[in-house]
Amino acid sequence: MNQNKPASRAFVFLSMLIAVSLFRVNAQASVSGGLKMEMNTHQFWLYDLDDYTSKTKIAPNVGGFLDIELNDRFAVQPEIMLFFRNSGLKYGERDDHVQQWGMMIPVYLVGREYIDSGTWYFGLGAYAGFGFNARMKNAKTVLYDKTDGHAAIMNRWDYGISALIGYEYGNGIQINAGLQLGLKDQLDACKDHATAINKTITAGIGYHF
């Protein structure tokens, strides 16, 4: 199964859209920021790994964002999020967990709809991620490290598309939900005959200064 070419084209298109939007921001643009705390549910979409099943587990994200206004209705929102992922993995009769720590940088083009008591906002964008560490919890296997000159089991890098929806109250408190779909195969050692793609759903709160 090879979805890399159309997926990569979609990622490039979104990246160009965000870059053009950033380029249009002038020196008078209003820039603000805030903090976010989220819970994520993560799993891998697995292809050509018939003996393996990935299950969602809950873990936290924490980070911050900038809000760069393009006009009253649109803004660019880059974020830096530190994540912990705890995905269930069943292979044969054995159950384990893939535990990952890392950083993700999404950038959204955000649209806003104002109502009397607050603001609805909707974002579409792209993200890049980097894993600091990953391991199998029970097997105590380190997944990012090469062993005896062989490729690592997993790839540290990830990128993909992301979506965001939220509501901001008049006092700056936000509630939000998001989706990140990876476009890069997370397998390294067996990438020629199998594929694992990240899928993450988030829900959380934030504060816009």
Descriptive account of the structure:
It is a single chain. This protein is elongated. The mean pLDDT is 88. The termini are far apart. It is mainly beta. Helices cover 10% and strands 63% of the residues. Strand 6 and strand 7 (141-142) form a beta hairpin. An 8-stranded antiparallel β-barrel has the order 1-3-4-5-6-8-9-10.
**Given the C-alpha coordinates, what overall shape results?**
elongated
Mean pLDDT: 88
Strands ordered across the widest β-sheet: 1-3-4-5-6-8-9-10
Number of strands: 10
Instruction: Give the helix/strand class.
Output: mainly beta
Helix-strand sequence = HEEEEEEEEEE
Helix content: 10-25%
**Unreliable spans:** none
Largest sheet: 8 strands, antiparallel, barrel
Beta-strand content bin: over 45%
How far apart the termini lie comes to 45 Å
The helix count comes to 1
Roughly how many Å is the radius of gyration?
A: 19 Å
